[in-house]
Specification:
Radius of gyration: 20 Å
Distance between the termini: 23 Å
Strand order of the largest sheet: 5-4-6-8-1-9-15-14-10-11
Shape: globular
CATH superfamily of the largest domain: Thiolase/Chalcone synthase
Number of strands: 15
Number of helices: 14
Order of helices and strands: EHEEHHEHHHEHEHEEHEHEHEHHHEEEE
Strand content: 15-25%
Number of domains: 2
Length: 413
């Protein structure tokens, strides 16, 4: 593996706060929530993060019917990322473009729909089961739908990494570029989670589904009254390339990948292990050849569950001590938990900090839980960081104890 410098040159996204980075960023800085009520089969209206993008911008209506919601999110984000990066696919070798997408789960939406239709309308006669079911539900579907839409012939696959998947997709893209397997990587994560009632039901039975009379206040990491996760859909895909290639084509560089780490708790199906989270952060910082005090901003994973938030804060406190230099925020408080897209979309919301110097706040922290108190935690409103933001550490953790940490730095030539 050649240790080429890898940079981000394009980003395409859709999330509950918009479909362009500037719209998303403006909402974060102004303290606007993207959570609303959403009808969930068998459960009524639930707080959720819902995307509103034009599916027909890059797909025909027939293609939308044949494909999946996750596929449509992926196609929209990939096309937007390519345009933002200034790539002309007509002048590129399609076999040298790789697609690496993080997912939490895939196929639940389509399977639930088919089962319900079979029971409700067709007396369980499987002859009415759609012949599109198999390609819709194979795990590589969202990445594969991108290749069909864009005519790409390079490698494509999804990375199943629970809620650590958004970071994991980006990390995979970095590694594949350094291995020489591709020249451009479309990397990030996607989630269609709000379309699957089983996810809501699962969190509810676990006692981890958020409830609040005001949906915009349901996602409240670090607050004493937090009571669970707000399920959200989102997508975020980056164009990654080697720095030398970006320079050669005169690309605008958004940021540079400094370091990363993925590890495992090895202890529980659901409960997080703060020691392994701490280890993951320390090893990512070491991989980036940095010291903890050089991290300007920690973007937390915190999902608004009582124990999860507390354990992550313990890990962060152990890594960064009482330093007020390192600021801390959370994006799920604005948009809910985007599952497989979480790491990628939360990173996107913080990347403009490299240029505007502001750190967006964490919403809905009305009464800070003392166990979640961190010296640099930003609440209430966005703040300008003295000296600016030069290094961001992005946490993203998932069930079955998978942890991913990604570190980005401001590009300095």
């Amino acid at each position: 593996m050649q240790m080429d410098r890898i940079v981000l040159t394009g980003v395409g996204l859709t999330c509950p706060l918009g479909n362009e980075l500037h719209t998303y960023r403006d909402a974060l800085l102004s303290g606007k929530s993207g959570v609303s009520l959403f009808p969930v089969r068998n459960m009524g209206e639930q707080p959720a993060g819902v995307c509103d993008f034009d599916q027909t911008k890059y797909q025909k209506r027939k293609e939308i019917r044949v494909g999946t919601r996750a596929g449509s999110i992926a196609i929209f984000c990939a096309n937007e990322a390519i345009a933002a990066a200034g790539l002309d696919l007509g002048n590129l070798d399609p076999s040298r473009i790789g697609i690496y997408l993080g997912i939490t789960e895939h196929g639940n939406v389509e399977t639930e729909t088919e089962v319900c239709q079979l029971f409700d309308h067709y007396d369980e006669d499987v002859k009415y089961w759609t012949h599109h079911h198999n390609p819709r539900t194979v795990a590589n579907n969202p990445a594969g739908e991108i290749t069909v839409n864009l005519g790409l012939t390079g490698p494509h696959y999804t990375i199943g990494a629970a809620c650590a998947a958004g970071n994991a997709g980006i990390i995979q893209g970095v590694q594949q570029l350094r291995l020489g397997e591709c020249d451009y990587a479309l990397a990030g994560g996607v989630s269609e989670s709000i379309r699957a009632y089983g996810i809501f039901a699962g969190f509810k039975s676990q006692g981890a589904l958020a409830s609040h009379e005001d949906p915009t206040q349901a996602s409240r990491p670090f607050d004493q009254a937090r009571n669970g996760i707000v399920v959200s859909e989102s997508g975020c895909i980056y164009v990654l390339e080697r720095l030398k290639d970006a320079h050669r084509r005169g690309a605008h560089i958004i940021a540079e990948v400094a370091g990363y780490r993925i590890n495992s708790d090895g202890t529980d199906y659901v409960l997080p292990n703060p020691e392994r989270q701490e280890e993951c952060m320390r090893q990512a910082i070491e991989n980036a050849k940095l010291q903890p005090e050089e991290i300007d901003l920690v973007s937390t994973h915190a999902t608004s569950t009582p124990q999860g938030d507390e354990q992550e804060c313990k890990a962060i406190r152990n890594v960064f001590g009482e330093s007020i230099h390192t600021m801390v925020n959370n994006t799920k408080s604005f948009i809910g938990h985007s599952m497989g897209a979480a790491g990628a979309i939360e990173l996107a919301g913080n990347l403009p900090s490299f240029h505007d110097g502001y750190v967006h706040c964490t919403l809905n922290v009305d009464h800070l839980d003392p166990t979640c108190a961190l010296p640099g935690l930003v609440t209430g409103k966005a703040v300008a960081k003295p000296g600016g933001v030069n290094v961001i550490l992005n946490n993203s953790f998932g069930m079955l104890g998978i942890n991913s940490v990604l570190i980005l730095k401001k590009f300095d030539g």
